[in-house]
Amino acid sequence: MTGNIQLLSDTLAKAKADNRAALIAYLPAGFPTVDGGIAAIKAVFDGGADVVEVGLPHSDPVLDGPVIQTADDIALRGGVKIADVMRTVKEAHAATGKPVLVMTYWNPIDRYGVERFTEELAAAGGAGCILPDLPVQESALWREHADKHGLATVFVVAPSSKDERLATITAAGSGFVYAASLMGVTGTRESVGEQAADLVRRTRATAELPVCVGLGVSDAKQAREVAAFADGVIVGSAFVKRILDADGDEAAGLAAVRELAAELAEGVRRVS
Amino acid sequence: MSSEFFIPDPEGQVPTAEGYFGAYGGKFIPEALVAAVDEVAVEYDKAKADPEFARELNDLMVNYTGRPSALTEVPRFAEHAGGARIFLKREDLNHTGSHKINNVLGQALLTKRMGKTRVIAETGAGQHGVATATACALFGLDCTIYMGEVDTQRQALNVARMRMLGAEVIAVKSGSRTLKDAINEAFRDWVANVDRTHYLFGTVAGPHPFPAMVRDFHRVIGVEARRQLLERAGRLPDAAIACVGGGSNAIGLFHAFVPDTDVRLIGCEPAGHGVETGEHAATLTAGEPGILHGSRSYVLQDEEGQITEPYSISAGLDYPGIGPEHAYLKDSGRGEYRAVTDDAAMQALRLLSRTEGIIPAIESAHALAGALEVGKELGKDALLLVNLSGRGDKDMDTAARYFGLYDTDAEVAADGGAGTAEIEGDAK
Questions:
Q1: Looking at beta carbons, which residues of chain B come within 8 Å of A68?
Q2: B11 falls in which pLDDT band (50, 70, 90)?
Q3: Could you tell me which residues of chain A have a Cβ less than 8 Å from any Cβ in chain B?
Q4: Count of structural domains within chain A
Q5: Is residue B297 within 8 Å of B322, Cβ to Cβ?
Q6: What domain range is A86 assigned to?
Q7: Does the residue A138 lie in any domain?
Q8: Residue A254: is its pLDDT beyond 70?
Q9: What is annotated about its quaternary structure and interactions (chain A) (predicted)?
């Protein structure tokens, strides 16, 4: 069973051919419950997302702001396990035929076993992984197994990344490159940093991979701004916040994330 | 040798250029911090090679910290340890009251060399926070200290000290609201403000170069103690004993003795209510290899890599990780690690207070309790060196509640049983 890296690449290429940026949504597994999380992902796809990143919640999410910390906490208190994350990927992909990635910190995968994790993720129909605390120089073992199972390794680049290092990272990465719009943790921001366009330009100079921008994007206006210079727009905290704001009303939460996905999907179509 | 007190590791065998001590260490950090962490490594290498850096740091260690710290023999305490001779390395007598100042002054000088104007730090017991706030006052740097909310309560005196020194203290309310969570929050701050901010990491964990650099700044502890003990006792100790949370005072004591293979290196971890109860922070005793806060080492975690909440009466040892060099020493057999319960540590704290007139920090009391055990195991000819890493003033509220020393607590405590045994009965 091989993973869906090709589906991911084709999806991003199709968006490009349509002269638009792709919309990539993030939602944690097990939030607010495992089944509720799966329903939320389906709703986000239904609203117009092209790709979904499923968060594997971690006890120590050092790169996440308060919104995703809260969601991770709810998921972990609910007892979410890696098996639940795999089921989330499997059901979300099977129901939509769209590419689904996992985003998490390195320790859960290291502890679970890289071989076992990549094998199960590929079997679930996963397209790859984003591992923001696994820098390229520590990633050889992960990449060996990800490659074997047809999974993308999406590296994060930051405004502080020097050009030489960008080249090293993009040479090792696959699927797309996750460009952090600003120096900071996840969370919604008033504006997307000006550094983002420069980072995308510098990253593109090193590789053919699509470059997608995340951190801080929360509404259609920001999505449109980013879509003007990036291959994809990544939105996480804004989706999570809609579910938190629904305060336990599952139907309201699903409607809210579907609506946000539709607005953002409109935003990433550059020509207004 | 131009420097008497700044003595970076002359062997240079570990870590590797990538920061590995055997299988442990490395640099598991977000891309946004790679440039900053690399800058610290480059600047530290430059500083090590610069006699002016050594001269400045030496001057501070002598005239500000008060080095060398004393070596005190404690015969009345040692009567409870099978008659062994015990010497204490008095890091509690340093300015600010613990070993932490050694590392803080080194990194504060480095901060200036990097042209950064703001320092952030985590703190558990508050000793690293106080030392950092002190150095920032001395050098005119902005200072923000992250401290778990639980710890701000049990170490309230140190919170007041930090604020008196001009630091901003932020109580962290996430997770277990202790040291681990303070570090998470400091990393989040660093990612967002890295341009002008240095993260003055307080222990020998974290990404490379912190484990090696912080160790180098603390090596002076063992180097001094080794020389002092040779003068005073005429021989090397049978064991060098220190408490272990993240592991900075222990590695500082141990490192100069690593080549002396007859000297046992014994780290005392916090067993809390007992390792078997699950309420402990004995990472090397009960943990498994994993990644936490930027490096691979032993970690308290579940089977899916979620970090489990640690517990210790000592805020400074209440941490689910451990510096990678300790993991390396453990696996190689050169270091030995044993777990000491809250109760054993508190009894040792009171015993040292009443036999020698020295009130130790609860952290250091774990090493003292370990020394009582090791002394009895080795018998009366044994010579033990114990690192008294900090003084206990900050812990008086915890100790007063534990032993019922407040007037209003007296009757309650008399019925309380646990922890109120008389000294004679303690040293078993």
A1: none
A2: low
A3: 58-63, 65, 69, 76, 81-82, 106-112, 132-135, 137-138, 155-162, 165, 169, 180, 183-185
A4: 1
A5: yes
A6: 5-266
A7: yes
A8: yes
A9: Tetramer of two alpha and two beta chains.
